[in-house]
Give the backbone structure.
Amino acid sequence: MAQVTIPLGPQHPALKEPGNFLLTLEGEKVVGAKVRVGYNHRGIEKACEARTYLQDIYLIERICGICSHAHTTCFCMAVEELAKAEVPKRAQAIRVLVGELERLHSHLLWLGVAGHEIGFDTLFMYVWKDREHVMDCLELVGGNRVNYAINTIGGVRRDIAPEMKTELLKRLDILEERTKYYVEVGTQEPTLLARCAGVGMLPKDVAIRLGAVGPTLRASGVDMDVRRDDPHLLYGELDFKVITSDRCDVLGRVIVRVLEVLESVKICREVLNNLPEGPIAVKVPRRIPPGEVVTRYEAPRGEDIHYVRSNGTEKPDRVKVRAPTLANWASMAHMLEGGRLADVPITIAAIDPCFSCTDRATIVRDGVWGTLDLHSLRRRS
Amino acid sequence: MESLAPSAFSLLVFPGFLFLGAYGTLAQWVDRKLYARMQRRVGPPWYQPVADLVKLLAKETIVPQAADMAVFQLLPAVAVAAACTAMLMVPVWGPGAVVSFQGDLIAVLYLLTIPTATFFLAGWSSTSPYAAVGSVRALTQLFSYEVPLFLSVIGAAILAGSLSVQEIAAFFAARPALLAVNLPGLCVALLALQGKLERVPFDIPHAETEVVGGPFTEYSGGLLALFLAATDMEMVVGAALISAVFLGGSLGLTGAAGFALFVAKTLGVVFILALMRALMARIRLEQMLGFCWKILAPVALAQILADILIKRVI
């Protein structure tokens, strides 16, 4: 059969953000896949160097619309380590709480999107309606549905009042019950199983070799979670399971995520019931002592890495963000090749990609590295 | 000329183009509203399909440069014409259809295949990769659901001893108990109709996350509106056919009562179609082929066998 090349993106209904997947098809079978990203350069890292650490938080918060808290927490932890500031226990607990609520909303959002990608719009509508509960929780805690702006250097900006706690616990109960229903749907609904089982295979050794992270890696049977392996905040003291699956396919990624939602509900409840007393922030001087530090944080999509270098002024010398999606891109071509055209959208969606958070303006063409200056960047836009 | 006037009226006004278009629009709204309520959504107001139609008609119609102008523009009209013609042979408010002859059942099934053929040609002549993949999918899918649909309908025809839709309806209206015999056939026909209308879980040719708009990717404005109208009309004709063949048609009632029964039965079929759409994810093409050939076709064959045996008994 003749080969047809179909471009998926940069503008395509399956993609929420621009990216390009050049698929070579033989009938419905994908025999070749090329992943091309880099449509979303926003210059956030460079912009961070021109602002103070405190102003940078607002910028970092906007790296990702879904895991905004993961990025600010990672950045704040880096700055606090440079400044040798001890974050109060209560602030750490609130960070964990918001972080887990964020994981809840991110995974539920993903489940809905995954449903849409396989044409299961009812699942999409159901999940997103239930997701409103966690959005309300986040609004209650942070004052905002998306960018909660709870973090500041040295702690958090808002406290948890006792009446908030009752409301949050109530909502968590509803979420837990609904999620249990989705666990059933995800493991029993025949058409969903037909579309997800055996699709987008990523064997364990390949996942490790290509450096996959987060639920994608855990669904390939690798037991890795930064929350447990490199405990930060209160995570060392909390009791939670790291969910893995040996399925290595999209269904495994569905199962890992829905079960992680249940774990997150558990963590939130534990944190709320054992909220330490004390202040919610310490004062950190505006000038940060010189040094460099790397911090890791388990974002909903996987390991988020921030690198911050300080030169002793109130502005950072260099900020580097490695969003989890970047680590997962490498395995994408492997997951797509050998599959069918119908499996491409769900396979791409299964790593829960965040294109904009990942894209940096480094260009590798024909093996030659290069960067774009402002002039040529403007010419392309 | 005088003898042409009633035929033209039937084809263009009732139960043809105007009535079918209006009823198709209503059925589309019912389908969308039910689908929305099943998904815990509010759903569109009753005039939404009309508003969509007006909006599409107001939009520019773009024909791709590489496409054959005449074919590209003619195909939507052919799809609508086929659906309207098929409607003439299906009883609407009473036991009788506008046109009835031995073998009109085959003519209806044949006419209902034409829209799918136009979808394929439309996608193929659009010269877009998405449309090409979508139209190949539409054609592949055609071969999987048509056979079970034909087999299930023929089972009922054998029992009734007639190949005329009107006579089959009359036969079952006189012996409602025999309708139970064809229940498996009814299920097969409903599933096959869902495939024919290219809706979830069989909306493979139109899977927007894979092939954008499928065969309709390059269609816009009035031409797209015509295609969408043809799909709505096909849904009504399909529902009416199922109502006549498997549900006893008007059950002998005429006038307003017969029409009310027609509306109730067709909307009932639309309800089941909406329920199927809400309950499932889109399956893959080869999964659909397997399902239709390994499950639907054998069930329909068993149905025919049962019908032949029961025919012997009565």
Remarks:
- Chain B has one domain: 63-313.
- The interface with chain A takes residues 38-41, 129-130, 132-133, 200-201, 203-204, 207-212, 278-287 of chain B (CB under 8 Å).
